[in-house]
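Sharing a chain and its predicted structure for anyone who wants a worked example. Both blocks are below, sequence first, tokens second.
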Amino acid sequence: MWNLIAYYLRFLRTERGETLRLMADTMGVAESTTSRIETGEQKLTERQAEEIDKAWKTGGLLGLMVYYARRASDPDWFRTYTDQEVAAAVIRMFANSTVPGLLQTEAYARALLMSGQEPDPQKSLERRMARQGILARTTPPRLWVTISENVLDWPVGGPEVMREQLARLVEVAELPNVWLRVVRRAAGAYPGLDGPFLIMSGPDGDADVFVDAARAGRLVTDSEEVRWFMERFELIGSRAESVDSSIELLKQAMERYQ
């Protein structure tokens, strides 16, 4: 469906005799963005489709195609997820049992993968570590991280591994593009008890959500459901400690693993 959208967008543009520059102006994006959309490297967003439909008087065709494409099953969901992760300008993540993959140390990640039933834990480890490259970019994404206090206390890999992992979280939490907060157990019942998720927002504000699960996960692209997760993240954050208090909690947890 996405390939069809890319093809038909190019077809409509050439039929109208418009350049990529003119189409970019209509959508309010860079010319390079329109080029990537036409080649299938980037997906047309609902807002962009709406602008084209209005300007070209398509009767809402592109918007309708995007609507169904975003709801279709994606057999290659993990590649789609990692592509979105790389392109994200802002990443909001919540974890209630383990450290999020983007922030895991190699030893911590290895302990998790070896404890499960991964068919090739070494390959999975290498892939997970490679994904963290986005944090070392010249312009890394902004990270809003909320974790449960349970994450600090569950001794994955033993004391030494946990101390290293918590030190890594302190290091990350002190970066200017990261806001890390902890929800104390004293907060009682709150929305985050249902499970972890990650929201990836692109430069244009459009977002997708990855919901973690055993053996696989679910990529949420429906705009209404994405908004639901955005609100959920805010609700969880309302129960969290401040950034400074959270960093202090991380340091206190490190001392317990001496």
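Comments welcome. Residues 95 and 196 are 5 Å apart (CA to CA).
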